[in-house]
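Structure in, sequence out. Go:
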């Protein structure tokens, strides 16, 4: 599977690559600071699944049929903290 990581996930490129994904970032595509429309069009034109936490980018992707994963950073942090707290305080 080929991924396009939006700006906020650029630093995770190597993590996804080691997991076996073919990864490109908006920085690689010279879209740094790019508007959502350009990012979505790039994903569409290159057959990439967009990974983003930007609601507008996800909505645009939906409109033009681009596959995407919308990630809520606050939800991920809350789940991670909850898991770690349960490890430290058994029985909760």
């Amino acid at each position: 599977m080929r991924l396009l990581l939006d700006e906020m996930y650029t630093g995770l490129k190597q993590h996804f690559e080691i997991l076996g994904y073919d990864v490109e970032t908006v920085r690689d595509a010279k879209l740094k600071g790019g508007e959502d429309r350009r990012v979505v069009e790039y994903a569409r034109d290159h057959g990439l699944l967009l990974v983003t936490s930007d609601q507008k980018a996800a909505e645009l992707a939906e409109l033009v049929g681009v596959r995407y994963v919308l990630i809520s950073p606050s939800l991920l942090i809350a789940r991670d903290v909850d898991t770690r707290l349960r490890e430290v305080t058994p029985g909760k």
